[in-house]
Amino acid sequence: MEPRVSLITLGVVDLRRSLVFYEAMGFRASSLGGGEVFFLQAGAIGLVIWSRADLASDAGAPEAGSGFRGIAIAHNVREEREVDEVLAAAEAAGGKITKQAHQAPWGGRTGYFADPDGHLWEVAWNPHFPLDEKGALTLPP
Length: 141
Known about the structure:
The protein is α/β, with parallel strands linked by helices. The protein contains three helices and seven strands; from the N terminus they run βαββαβαβββ. A hairpin with a 5-residue loop joins strand 6 (109-114) and strand 7.
């Protein structure tokens, strides 16, 4: 297997509400999906929002379950101040701040928000993970 992530798919309760939230965060939907699923460009990968029930069925997994899911999606920013700006934008768009922006013990700044379905996003400025001009992160060897 080539080490690569192509798509991240989030199962959501209300597809339209999620689309409004992510578009308010700056994502734009592709023309693909026919209104049953939305594909959003997220840098070099795609973010997909799909009905929670349909995603569970497609994966052959039970739909039931809530609370901490054991995963967070990270959005790294170029400047320290952007952590607070992105968290404020997420809250204004209908997200919930789960951890306010703060100085991290590893030398950066970080905070968390949850989207309308509770999917966690970390917003981080990490001086050890510089982003290139396209926003790609390259980990040091």
